[in-house]
Design brief:
- This protein has 351 residues and is of the alpha/beta class.
- The protein has two domains: 117 residues, Rossmann fold (3-Layer(aba) Sandwich), CATH 3.40.50.720; 181 residues, Dihydrodipicolinate Reductase, domain 2.
- Strands 15-12-11-10-6-9-8-7-16 form a nine-stranded mixed beta sheet. Strands 2-1-3-4-5 form a five-stranded parallel beta sheet, sandwiched between helices.
- Helix 5 runs antiparallel to helix 9.
- Bound molecules: nicotinamide-adenine-dinucleotide.
- Nicotinamide-adenine-dinucleotide (NAD) binds next to helix 1.
Length: 351
Amino acid sequence: MINNKFGHAVIGYGGMGHFHGERHEHIKDLEFLGFYDIDPAVQKKGEEEGAHSYSSRAELLADERVDLVTVATPNDVHKEIVIDALRAGKNVICEKPVTMSSEDLEDMIAVANETGKMFTVHQNRRYDGDYLKVKHIYENNTLGKIHCFEHRVHGSRGVPSGWRQEKEHGGGMVLDWGVHLLDQMLTLMAGKKMLSVYAECTHITNFDCDDGFKAIIKFEGDVSWQIEVLTNNFIEMPLWYVCGENGTAVIKNWKGDGEIVMVEDWENRDSVPIKAGVGLTKTMAPRTDDSIKHFPLPDEGKDDWDAYYLDICDALKNGREPNVTHDQQRKLIKLIEAIFESAEKNVTIKF
Ligand SMILES: NC(=O)c1ccc[n+]([C@@H]2O[C@H](COP(=O)([O-])OP(=O)(O)OC[C@H]3O[C@@H](n4cnc5c(N)ncnc54)[C@H](O)[C@@H]3O)[C@@H](O)[C@H]2O)c1
């Protein structure tokens, strides 16, 4: 502790390392003490920016003022650093994906249990506004029974250069954005049995690891999720598209543009055929304005930048498990393994 605050240090001071250092300035119970990065140029730059750099990982872990260590290195070295930090008596937040296999995760959890220290994962996107809106719609039964969630994140710049393009470092989009989208899904579907997954990985601009994927995941009660992360798409598609028995919700982007359309009178659905292409259709005739109503998306979902860290501080103060639990991570990594297996063998994996 330092000044009655939890002393915090970061290992790996790239994009996310800086994010953690800077975010903690907003959290009254955390004091950012410094960082260690394996790259001397990053060490030097961090010092120039005004942060304290430890000369080695060992020096950082030996600092008794450090209560909490965040690991923000590439994915392949999470395991060794997390275990090292736990054994040094530190509480640990690991960046996502926590690691790259269930076996590795079990080794990490075993050390956390042995040391009695907190070990959790930075699943920050549980507090994204778009996800919170969908959560609100689902939990309030706004659309009636939901049978289909589609959640897409599309970019057009391929996979960023560096370790993200390399399999041995845990690159690829399944282990990048996929982890967030799948974690949001599992959190929302907690308590529902997951039945199966079918997945395809894309290799359009990157061959060593995937540059995108599509997965269809089925849950009990006839609920299906379609999750897509693509990096080679030049026309924006909606972030969320959610279909219920009485209506549809669309969230177009991270700004929160979108709407809910509800049917007014389901019984009154007959129509005269319209011309479509070179044929006729009654089934696909558009709704008339008097039979549907348009509503704005719920106000409830706002990006909550502090919620993740407030939960960590509360968990540390009260000696409880944080919101992101070991069991949730086990389930997530198993699903990721199933996605890779499905894509590789071109089969549906049943759970
Ligand atoms: N939660 C999120 O929203 C989010 C967003 C982006 C990245 N991430 C995750 O954060 C982690 C880091 O990603 P990034 O974008 O910051 O990468 P980055 O490449 O910008 O930074 C990684 C840093 O780790 C350093 N490093 C590598 N090996 C090290 C070691 N053994 N010890 C100390 N430092 C080491 C590198 O020199 C580099 O400076 C990854 O696990 C990534 O998946 C999470």
